Amino acid sequence: MLRQIRDAQGYSLRALAGKAGMAYPALFRLESGEADPRLSTLRKLAKALKVTVAEIIGEGRPARKRAGR
After folding, report:
1. Does 62 fall in a domain?
2. How many whole angstroms separate alpha carbon 54 and alpha carbon 61?
3. pTM of the prediction?
4. DSSP string, 30-69
5. 24 in a structural domain
6. Given this model, what pLDDT does residue 63 score?
7. The domain containing residue 20 runs over which residues?
8. 31: domain CATH number?
9. Which tens digits make up the pLDDT trace of 19-67?
């Protein structure tokens, strides 16, 4: 779900990594399924994307394009 939300909001991996305060390689590994995220990481990503952690893990409402992105 992370990639769908990121794409819907128009962020590149590098842009989202910067906005969430994480390293690009770490975000790449998460999105590609090579690593499991920590809850703290999910919270950073949710805050940066203005969604809930549940949405990122696919248990919330479906991702939709946000206004202004």
Report:
1. no
2. 8
3. 0.81
4. HHHTSSPPPHHHHHHHHHHHTS-HHHHTT-SSPP-PPTT-
5. yes
6. 52
7. 2-56
8. 1.10.260.40
9. 999 999 999 999 999 999 999 999 999 999 999 999 999 886 655 555 4
